[in-house]
Predict the structure.
Amino acid sequence: MKIALGQINPTVGDFSGNAHRMVDFAQRAKAAGAGLILFPELSICGYPPRDLVERPSFVERNSETAESIAERTLGIAVICGLVTRAQAETGKSAMNSAALLQDGKIAFVQSKMLLPTYDVFDEMRNFAAATRQELFSFCGQQMALTICEDAWNDKHFWNKRLYTFDPVEELIRAGGNLVLNISASPFWVGKREFRRRMLASIAKHHKVPVVMVNQVGGNDSLVFDGSSMVLNPAGQVVAQGKSFEEDVVYFDSNDLRGEIHSQIEGEEAEAYAALVLGTRDYVRKCGFGRVIVGLSGGIDSALTAVIAADAMGAENVIGVGMPGPYSSPGSIEDARTLAEKLGIRFELLSIKEAFESYRKILQPVFAGRHEDETEENIQSRARGTLLMALANKFGGIVLSTGNKSELGVGYCTLYGDMVGGLAVISDVPKTMVYRLSRYVNASREVIPRASLEKPPSAELRPGQRDTDTLPPYAVLDPVLEDYIEEMHSAEQIAKDHKIDIELVRKIIRMVDGNEYKRQQAAPGIKISAKAFGYGRRFPIAAKYEA
């Protein structure tokens, strides 16, 4: 039997739009001779729906939409993800489920057993867990239908498992001979290969084919890479969907031969693709058609602008240079050159008069006090005001340009360079900003060489350099990675990187002391295993030394 994987990009809550996309993909698969098409986890409502599942009307729309899809896909069976009503005695109102749509009706429903509650996942908050699962027969196969996390507990792959029960193992023991997994598995750099190895372990251990269809697209901070795949009992990939774009991929369930579609290879390439997709979907799914980017002439704003142009089209990007009293002529020229090479609109708005007005207003109150970071922050906030004014007037959204290193240690200004609706590179360390910028320039040199080569500076006082306040980024970034992503202690970090422990402790204090800033920051696009945002929940008012 020819089976199709419908790798789609759903929007949370867009029942009619998601259904239309699924029906279209199903009809295409039927025309190609497929007898079954699989869609991702919660494909009917989009993932993650979060607390929307607490609305009874939202749950009902899922079932109504599933019934509508079943009626519109006669001649091909469909497996899709949806929210279903939970049993009253569970205390939760909804379940994360998968449905088989066949002959115009819902023929079979299976619900998720393993509900993740770590990193960006909080499914125990919203869903009741299934207490049992069953096989279903289809074209001579005993199908073991699982939902995302249900396949992430193989004792032969994980050194320490999060759950005592393995749904795949139980379904195989009951006679299952083909594992189907519908997923909404978020992307981080390295995740695709990790996921492949995990699924290969299941296939090889149980000696059965494993089929995984994954969501693609961006929803809020999360990016889903697609990369749907089919593995034979030897753990070899025999069919695979594209990465970071919608796709239909076919395979034969008898001879286990299928299509291998092109993949994006390399860390820089996959990270860049994720940032572009995440930006495009965040902006468009939030209802905006235009973005505003402050261009300083530095590398961070340059990379953000390139991502924005690739995501939205150059005609939908406005770059804004906002020179202040300490901006160098070279930085202004670099910003202008970047805009010209990208083909985006460029506006030059000086903040000098605004800054002097603030100083004049505050002079009586500040009398007798030396200038310090207060005046630096005023410049940043004046720029933020201009950016937001342009966004309001032209109906756009501001993309903030701070990187993960700056956000980590608080080297950023609340209501200044942190303003915006999306922090595009807030999960990209400074050293990776340079790597991504060189990756971009390797195919088309749009980022001025000076932006890549000059020492990083906020240009908020004469001769300022980032290294006046921070260690070199080559030193800072490994410390931040180990502390934020790996949860290592100061002693371990100092030992592993041969860095003075007092410097490590200073960096850690900066991270911990700036939690209040990060929790007011715009959402960012997650491309690492541990990003700032709702996947990292630390108290603001706390006194703890790591």
Observations:
- The CA atoms of residues 515 and 540 lie 5 Å apart.
- DSSP finds 17 helices and 19 strands in the chain.
- The chain has two domains: 2-255, 270-466.
- The chain has a mean pLDDT of 96.
